[in-house]
């Protein structure tokens, strides 16, 4: 049994887990939502083994600075590889544990993780044409916001794909950051076209720069 995997109810088939012992510490405050592959770790296309993990430079330092300010970091990740039968939840859990352990060893902390395996080309029971938790839909983010009473008006999302930005926008987050790592350079054009004149979208090189700007905003609100 995978801790965090829901087998029934509205979260059926979804992995949704808090790693913080008491999520009430986040109530009323902002959070940083992160896509995983291409933002925290290199996108190896269906990452399924801890041995294939390669952390993007600057990630550990960035997440450590958020921990110092008690700002939760929440991973929201589509996991089509599970839906298509390429690997199972055991493999996902092993990869996520390795990521969590590394970040914690470096002084940071991943507060929670939500993963959606549903995909239009998935195998049963994960075949779904438009699951509300699969990005660009906002279901994973909305669940986390409600679960921990997080302030969406001060929260940001960082991702390397247009679907990440769209999910954050639909969830009503205050800021959206498109990074150049992962698929970011490939998707920059369509992301820029989509963002248009939106003032809540920034384009940066990596998560490290996202966190620098996010912290500057948070400190401005707290002063």
UniProtKB/TrEMBL annotation:
Gene3D superfamilies: HAD superfamily/HAD-like. Its main location: cytoplasm. CDD domains: HAD_HisB-N. Keywords: Carbohydrate metabolism, Cytoplasm, Hydrolase, Metal-binding. GO terms for biological process: carbohydrate metabolic process. GO terms for cellular component: cytoplasm. GO terms for molecular function: metal ion binding; phosphatase activity. It is found in: Cytoplasm. InterPro entries: HAD-like_sf (IPR036412), HAD-SF_hydro_IIIA (IPR006549), HAD_sf (IPR023214), Heptose_bisP_phosphatase (IPR004446), Histidinol-phos (IPR006543). Belongs to the GmhB family. This is D,D-heptose 1,7-bisphosphate phosphatase. The lineage of its organism: Bacteria, Bacillati, Bacillota, Clostridia, Eubacteriales.
